[in-house]
TrEMBL record:
Coiled coil: none annotated. It comes from Mycolicibacterium diernhoferi. It comes from the Bacteria. Keywords: DNA-binding, Transcription, Transcription regulation. SUPFAM superfamilies: Winged helix' DNA-binding domain (SSF46785). The keyword Calcium does not apply. This is Transcriptional regulator.
Amino acid sequence: MPKRLPPGHEQPLYEIKANLFKALAHPSRIRVLEILSAAGEPTPVSAILAQSDIEPTLLSQHLAVLKRHQVVTAERSGNAVFYRLAHPKISELLVIARTFLADTLSARRDQLDTLSTLPPIGGSGVG
């Protein structure tokens, strides 16, 4: 939860960034953000539930964390609550993270491929 500081005592930007990444630091929250990003429009909780396979109580908690950290916004319409990304750059952040992971995993695969070409050590048969 974001800390409340007395007036005149601003939180350093790196702490604010760290809190943002803490809000993103759960696979279910990333999945929710990906669903909202793909939808591109306000999405009802029922649709998020259907696409995410997250238990309703847990989904509610994850949405509350994302909302508290201003990553998503919510709007009630009748009995339904609709969520959307609070800023379009959040979609870009998700794309950048996915690209980074793909590049990292590709580099690891290349390293493993190289490892498999090494001669065995001490008769163990393992590189």
